[in-house]
Each structure stands twice: as structure tokens, then as C-alpha cells.
């Protein structure tokens, strides 16, 4: 599990807070185009899943059968503020089924709209279940239960058919298979799934693309014939793919042909990236050996102990396990989709690795010479420069 720093907030030039998170961007075909942090992180999307929870409300025919408006559908997908226009719509909606707010499983809640809350207290009124920000979603579920003849008193329980349909619709949208979902209970008493960040990205992208046409067919009047949508042209190769750099550390960018298994592709690209960093390390320690040898012989001394290159081969593996995929992005190369990963070993880990190499060599290295070697070790140089130095 890893988060990326997405935002730093400064007050008067002083860092006040740091906000971390995970970002995943998917296209309507289900391909991951960009990510920051761990796309395989498990989390609860909660209210951001409401539009997918509303799918069965449309697919079942419940929306059409009640003669509802697009405003009702929007309310079903929303976390509302309980303004009068919201609660009046909830009451009207429930009235069409001879139900009331008391039939909703969510509890009473104070309006989020401050003016509405103040006016209620002035009139001596108490909040009802219609004021709950999730009451629209609950109306969608209970409407589906009424339309399909299921028990309306248990519509919010996991075993009710209207809730079981949610996992099926998530899979339909490119989400996890029904048997692979961890379920908990949301604040409004409905079952809520924990899914991977990348799964939510795919479902959201598909909802915004082809699924929006499906919704128009299910919730609208006539069946539209959508024109074929052209995918945007693939972007140029990102700079970090062409020139992977981390100041004071090691970096490598590797791309592998994309398959249907992002986890496998990422592991393969990461392994190749670590192998490339290991190769870079071998070249840099060769340069260190030459620099150290020149200093010692110039001073009239003799070189003893193990070479830095030999020691690096012994100790580098354990330190390279601390490297990570800091950037992951799908990139089109020669017309084919590739998963590109930038693997980095951060400056702190690189310094520890350097110290382990120098200490493991058992060479008598003065603090001044060690500092010179470290500056050489951490300096970014193009491969051509390193090759020239090792050839000297």
C-alpha cells in the first residue's frame, strides 16, 4: 500500500499540511492510462458509487413504471442537502408507491443546507428520514423492490435481491467478480463494497462512455443510436519514460506489452526496471573503483580490500527490494498498448547502499575521499558519459 503526495498547502510560506492519495485514470475500454500511488489499493467508494447503485433502478424498469423525471434519477445518484425541493421530491416519489419516509432504512438526519435547518428549528420541526442525504438512493432501491415484488422492509439487507444485483452490475461495468468483493455497512445502513482503486476507475470511465448510452436506453423513451466515438489519439511518450531521473537516487523506466493482467504487467516492468538499476549500479561502482585507484596511486599508496563493484553485487539485491514503481502509465508505442513503469531508489536508500558498498570493501577511505566518491555515485550522468569513464 502506498500513497502519493498530491497537494501541499502553505500558509505564509510555511508548509501547513500535506495531502496524500491515489490517482487512477482509465479509458472507456477499461485500460489504465495513468496512475499515482498504488492502483491496487482496497478502499470503500461509498457515495461515489451511487450512480452504479442506481443501474438496477433503471434496468428493472422501476424508473419508467413510476413515471419519474430526470430530476428523480439525479436525486437517486446524489448526496443531497435536504433543501425543500429535495425533500418534497422524496415525499412525492414515495407517495407514488403508497409509502412514506418511515419506510426508508436510513435514519433521520439534519439538513446539510444551513438555511433549511434554521427554518426547521424555527418552526419546531424535527428532521425525518427524507432529510438524510442518501434518501434518494434509498428511494431507488425501495422502488426496485416494489417493482420486482421483493420485500420492501428488507430492501437494505445484503440478502435482498435488489442488493445482490449490485455486485452483478459492478461486474458488468468492469468491476470485480461478485465473489471477490469485501462487504461492509455504510453510514446509511446499506451494504457497501470495498474494491480496488483501478476497478473504480474502470467502472467510472465505462459509466461516462458506453454505459451512458445504456442509461439513456433504460431510463429514456426511445432507443438512441449512438454514433461511433473515436478514442483520443494516444499521447506522446511521457518525459519520464524517455528520461527517467530522480535527484540523488537511481531511476529506470521500462515498458512491456500490455496484457489483460495489469498486476502481471506491472510486476514484469518493475523487475526489468530493478535489473536496469542494478546494471547502472555496476557501471557506477566501476567508475568509483577507477576514481579511488587514481587517488591512492597518485598519493603513492597501494589499493587494498575488495573492489566496490564486487561488494555492490553482494549487497545491492537487498537494497533494490526497497525500490518502487513511482510512476505507472499505459502508453501506445508503435500502435500497441504498453504498460510503462518508472522504478526509483530514493536518495535515502541510495545513500545507505553507498555506505554499505564502501564499508563492505574494507578499504581505508578518508572522509574527504568518501564524500568525493558519494558525489560521483549520486550524480546523474547519461549512459554515454558513464561508458566513457569506465573506458578510461
From TrEMBL:
Superkingdom per UniProt: Eukaryota
UniProt name for this protein: Asparaginase
Source taxonomy: Eukaryota, Metazoa, Spiralia, Lophotrochozoa, Mollusca
PANTHER family listed in its UniProt record: L-ASPARAGINASE, PUTATIVE (AFU_ORTHOLOGUE AFUA_3G11890)-RELATED
Native species: Potamilus streckersoni
Amino acid at each position: 500500500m502506498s500513497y502519493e503526495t498530491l497537494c501541499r498547502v502553505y500558509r505564509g510560506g510555511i508548509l501547513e499540511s500535506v495531502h496524500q492519495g491515489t490517482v487512477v485514470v482509465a479509458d472507456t475500454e477499461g485500460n489504465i492510462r495513468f496512475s499515482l500511488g498504488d492502483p491496487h489499493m482496497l478502499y470503500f467508494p461509498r457515495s461515489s458509487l451511487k450512480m452504479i447503485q442506481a443501474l438496477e433502478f433503471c434496468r428493472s424498469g422501476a424508473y419508467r413504471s413510476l413515471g419519474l423525471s430526470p430530476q428523480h434519477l439525479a436525486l437517486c445518484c446524489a448526496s443531497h442537502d435536504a433543501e425543500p425541493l429535495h425533500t418534497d421530491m422524496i415525499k412525492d416519489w414515495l407517495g407514488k408507491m403508497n409509502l412514506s419516509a418511515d419506510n426508508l432504512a436510513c435514519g433521520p438526519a439534519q439538513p446539510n443546507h444551513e438555511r433549511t435547518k434554521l427554518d426547521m428549528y424555527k418552526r419546531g420541526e424535527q428532521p425525518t428520514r427524507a432529510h438524510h442525504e442518501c434518501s434518494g438512493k434509498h428511494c431507488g432501491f425501495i422502488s426496485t423492490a416494489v417493482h420486482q415484488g421483493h420485500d420492501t422492509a428488507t430492501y437494505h439487507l445484503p440478502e435482498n435481491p435488489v442488493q445482490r444485483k449490485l455486485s452483478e452490475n459492478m461486474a458488468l461495468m468492469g468491476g470485480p467478480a461478485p465473489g471477490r468483493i469485501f462487504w461492509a455497512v455504510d453510514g446509511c445502513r446499506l451494504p457497501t463494497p470495498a474494491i480496488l482503486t483501478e476497478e473504480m476507475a474502470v467502472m467510472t470511465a465505462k459509466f461516462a462512455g458506453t454505459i451512458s448510452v445504456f442509461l439513456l436506453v433504460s431510463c429514456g423513451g426511445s432507443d438512441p443510436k449512438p454514433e461511433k466515438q473515436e478514442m483520443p489519439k494516444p499521447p506522446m511518450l511521457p518525459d519520464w519514460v524517455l528520461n527517467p531521473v530522480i535527484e540523488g537516487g537511481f531511476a529506470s523506466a521500462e515498458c512491456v506489452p500490455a496484457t489483460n493482467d495489469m498486476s502481471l504487467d506491472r510486476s514484469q516492468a518493475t523487475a526489468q526496471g530493478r535489473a536496469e538499476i542494478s546494471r547502472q549500479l555496476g557501471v557506477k561502482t566501476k567508475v568509483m573503483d577507477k576514481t579511488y585507484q587514481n587517488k591512492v596511486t597518485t598519493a603513492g599508496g597501494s589499493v587494498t580490500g575488495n573492489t566496490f563493484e564486487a561488494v555492490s553485487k553482494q549487497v545491492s539485491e537487498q537494497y533494490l527490494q526497497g525500490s518502487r514503481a513511482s510512476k505507472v502509465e499505459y502508453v501506445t508505442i508503435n500502435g500497441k498498448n504498453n504498460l510503462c513503469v518508472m522504478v526509483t531508489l530514493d536518495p535515502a536508500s541510495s545513500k545507505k547502499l553507498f555506505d554499505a558498498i564502501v564499508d563492505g570493501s574494507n578499504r581505508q577511505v578518508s572522509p574527504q575521499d568518501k564524500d568525493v566518491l558519494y558525489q560521483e555515485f549520486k550524480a546523474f550522468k547519461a549512459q554515454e558519459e558513464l561508458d566513457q569513464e569506465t573506458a578510461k
